[in-house]
Predict the structure.
Amino acid sequence: MEKSELVLCDTNIIIELYKGNPTIVKSLKSIGQEKIAVSIITAGELLYGALNKKELTQINRDLSELRILEIDNEIGNEFIKLMSTYSLSHNLSLPDGLIAATAIVHDTPFYTLNTKDFKFISGLKLWG
């Protein structure tokens, strides 16, 4: 699979999927499960937000069906560049910086509901 075929989904997109948000469900169906990716940061955030063992088990099961993009040296270097550029001027958070760096390095569009937190990042393509 070409990296550019993937769409990297933010944590808030997956949370809205769990809530059954019809707009998000429709969007994700149009993308197709095989093209949905999440950052390992998003995977960790979802697991951290689990309220009990049942939810934790379900999240792990769901994550096993998605493409999880891990952090490597290239993403680490891009992350440092983004934090140097945007942490003071735009208050870029650590998780958002790592997720944005992942999307940039993999050259994949990023699907988020918080576009204001990302739209200023040069080289990041927002989905939708």
Remarks:
- The helical segments are 11-18, 22-31, 40-48, 53-63, 73-90, 94-105.
